[in-house]
Structure of Ferredoxin:
Amino acid sequence: MSDFKVKFLPAEVSIEADEGVSLLEVARRAGYVMQSECGGQGTCRRCKVKLVSGDVFLTGEPNISSAEREQNLTLACLARIVEDIIIEVPDESELTFAKDEFKPQWLPGEHPGDELHTFALKVDPLLQCLSITVPKATLQNNSSDFDRLCSTLEREGCKRPFKADISILKGLSSALREDNGFLNVQTVRIGNTTEICSLDTTEERPLYGLALDIGTTTVFGRLIDLSSGEVAAESSEYNRQIPCGGDIIHRIIYAGNEKGLNELNQLVLDTIGSIFGNLISEVDATEDQVVASVVAGNATMEHLFLGMNPKSIREDPYVPTVTEFPLLQAGDVNMPQMPHSAPMFLSPAVASYVGGDITAGLLAAGIHKSDQLTLYIDLGTNGEVVLGNREWLTACACSAGPAFEGSGVRCGMRALPGSIDAVVRDLDSGGLTYNVIGGGTPRGICGSGLIDLLAELHATEIVDARGKLQQEKDGRIRKANRKAEMVLFDKVQTGGAEDIVITDVDLDNLVRTKGAIFAGIMTLLKGVGLQASEIERVVIAGGFGRTLNIENAIRIGMLPDLPRDRFEYIGNGSLRGAGLALLSRKMWGELHQIAKMITYFELSTWPGYMDEYMAALFLPHTDAALFPSVL
Amino acid sequence: MSDFKVKFLPAEVSIEADEGVSLLEVARRAGYVMQSECGGQGTCRRCKVKLVSGDVFLTGEPNISSAEREQNLTLACLARIVEDIIIEVPDESELTFAKDEFKPQWLPGEHPGDELHTFALKVDPLLQCLSITVPKATLQNNSSDFDRLCSTLEREGCKRPFKADISILKGLSSALREDNGFLNVQTVRIGNTTEICSLDTTEERPLYGLALDIGTTTVFGRLIDLSSGEVAAESSEYNRQIPCGGDIIHRIIYAGNEKGLNELNQLVLDTIGSIFGNLISEVDATEDQVVASVVAGNATMEHLFLGMNPKSIREDPYVPTVTEFPLLQAGDVNMPQMPHSAPMFLSPAVASYVGGDITAGLLAAGIHKSDQLTLYIDLGTNGEVVLGNREWLTACACSAGPAFEGSGVRCGMRALPGSIDAVVRDLDSGGLTYNVIGGGTPRGICGSGLIDLLAELHATEIVDARGKLQQEKDGRIRKANRKAEMVLFDKVQTGGAEDIVITDVDLDNLVRTKGAIFAGIMTLLKGVGLQASEIERVVIAGGFGRTLNIENAIRIGMLPDLPRDRFEYIGNGSLRGAGLALLSRKMWGELHQIAKMITYFELSTWPGYMDEYMAALFLPHTDAALFPSVL
């Protein structure tokens, strides 16, 4: 028996909770994916809730304003249950997954089948699906059931030796005798062995592979027809781990004990399970038609997906447990939706902070096959930078922080309805025009909007080259707690609890973030003795790249000042790469070559990195010669 | 709630049972391993029980005498529970496991470590156990935990590529950091991959391998020290499947539905579990010190051990599901005693009736390395014959039937206390002297006793060359139900319920059995165009070979008439071979070569076999020239 009743408004969801349990946890159990960056430390202010009735015990002083306090707002992570309560969850505290916002928006030729074609490859899935007829045993050919199966597979082009699990062998005798030896067989070639993953006697039907990109913030899944290579469905959701910490570091801390680790593992599996359900219902398939999966994610996400403690990733000298993962089965990773024996391939990582999402993205970008000197930048919750071509690859992770996802920025938020995703300055009036996702009044600013804003405030000298607000330049700048902040929207205007502002602290975070990325790029360039101007192609990957204004990103000194036609946006490179590997044994092999090719620069100890970073904490840069096109 | 109470005497065990359940099944659940050959068909008369109070419903007419009926005896397999009853289980109906009878009696040099030495091989177990220290990660060597582990193993002589299950990877990070990188690692080389099976940080302690011979009747286990190669303990028990059928065919029938199959699977696992418990308590080890196993058994036993339906083994054209088994883990086969990841190797079979017990026995006999033309005969519940040398091997299974284990012989029994295991004729008086195992009055006759008896009765012409009792030759011969039978011991003399007799039907069974074995030998010889006299070595394996009188076996025409010094007894060849394979990767490889080398003769359809068989149904043989030394 639980002690108390917690009711959530406006959804009218009620749940029982024991005394002392965190309200954030209760909300999670009630099905809410609450905003949280700090993993329940009471610092990020994201999990605000309104107490409608009853009271809670606070384990710390919540970082909220007196205005918020007056509205009975508090932070769910600090609140402990001590009696029956009724709670209202404000829109901005919940990661309501706006399906429309994440609608698949495929780039031209992004269907893996088409992409393979551009790589001059054919569809040749990692999991081979064959329909065969195994001859009956006779007194002349009285070899075992398994031997006759293997001989038949060999005639179909599979290579010896063959291997099958005991679960497969258990079903073989009756399957062979059910339909005169007719069998659907699924095989995977691992090392020099052909592994028989599945056999059945059902009629022909579409078989799908699942490409997964497990992001720190969002998990994307694509169902891909294994015979045509077409994307049959796409779905995505926020990673349900978010309430346990907004970024990798907070997740690793949360995984510090077994309970936390298991919880994170289950939360990502729940997220995937939900995506899986959407995907199969979209194509009207049954669970067992999804027969293989390629999973890409950063090293921490891959570890948590497998239930492995990622602890060592954040401890000097920052090593993961494993970078090249063994072939797994859905049963090994507790994915009950897929057939137990369905193979799961994990994209190989390079190092703790250059994971399987980056190797998959490079595969999709085709850098490893190109003569062009290419810069690959993944702008996700972390920032990873890769430089190279078919001959060599170098990579680093920029300790950029997730400021572009709204974290560490007072009114920052993810690219959700209500967020400002673009800011344009009228060249005549100098006035700023804001684009709000979904229209209406703004609730906050997302990454691309912050970059635009920084570029324009700097261009109009409201922000100086060091990223400080110049109070004398604009009447909307005020002091609060001795820090300067500029009001973009008044709360009266928006109807929100607070004004929408940009503060000196926010600006400092943004400059540090852009500086870390640019310093990473420069460090890789210097490491191989090249100039920025020699980069022939820049590939931008990651969620917020889609709305990124390249021009503004160069103006603030985040991206190198190159001819604009050298920049391209690849979308979710990780997901695309996972899909390609799923469909092509050759691509899967290349994915591993990429991982092996990459030389990793550990920036935290890299000589010269700190100098690059300090030089980049300037708009656009202390060395103006690097940005000739920026006035 | 069960319906009725069944009490067993003299043990005073009570158990509840539902209406209609077979008394044989109730007895099994009460812990009795009842004698049964027919698998509950009501024909073999082995499962006699005495109704002390209450009544049962009989599903058929039990094949018992009126004297037995008067004593309230009935057959447990035909009896169904309809009310509370009290049952007495006579000694002879229960397979009481006489530990003393199965005491390990090692042949000279049988310790696998010693044997390896005679093969000029060193102890080099299938499972390699290493103690290593993995260097800490540094910023200079910041490869993943797994990569540093692999590099360390490589320096210790293990070969790349390495593979580890997710369960191993999950524990790696903390294990590496527990004791400054010190690790005990267990690896297996499979194909071209080194699989990491286990890692821990415990202190050094003896590690054991389990060699198992799963016989239709008896299961033998040996605990072998993996570093010295010494046998640390040996234990054996009746296969608890026996009440489900005395021979392979009855077991396969019993496994016809999933319930029966699961039951047989669990019964053999229970048997092994009990043996396992005895073994580790004998050496005072913990379960997790037993880290690997090699299992040998005939194809049906191997299938049932894995929970695979052996159905096709008895259906024309007699093929098993698999002959070469994948490497398994204790967890795959539901052996909860051993560590989940402990590797289990199954000895490869050749065909449905030449199983992994035979290949293991050949390995132990070293035939595949010998220039001598060798005949290998396994006299177990089935009779398998192999002929060959290092160049070639041929094999067949004789449908001999288990008459030498007492089945199909009225007073036949296994070699248990109370059984006559040797019969000697006084050359002067012509009188027969009987040796009774354990002394005292006899309860029946076991295989070696039956062979002696047949030889002596034929020598004294009491039995003619066709195996018929000659009533005029001996006053102890009488007619019962129009069939001749000879009284060996009067029930007054023994105190048993019946006289100990040998009948014409018994003699016919024995002649057929010896004829089948000899016909198998002749068929193999003719198949390769050789004469019996060319055989240079005869190896007898199997339980009852130990007490077998070779001279008498030749006199009845079961074994070829060769100089007696060409015969040797190898004991349980299957168990010895399993132990050798466990301790030597080379031997394990050779075991598979043996399985591949063997040409299998399917006698049921072999041209000429029937003629050989008919010719052998004669004492010693229709062609007396084959037995020159037999008068």
Observations:
- The domain at 208-346 of chain B is CATH 3.30.420.480 (Nucleotidyltransferase; domain 5).
- The interface with chain A takes residues 137-139, 142-147, 161, 163-166, 169-170, 172-174, 177, 191-193, 306-309, 311-312, 316-324, 326, 328, 332-333, 351, 602, 605 of chain B (CB under 8 Å).
- Chain B has five domains: 4-93, 127-200, 208-346, 366-402+510-626, 405-504.
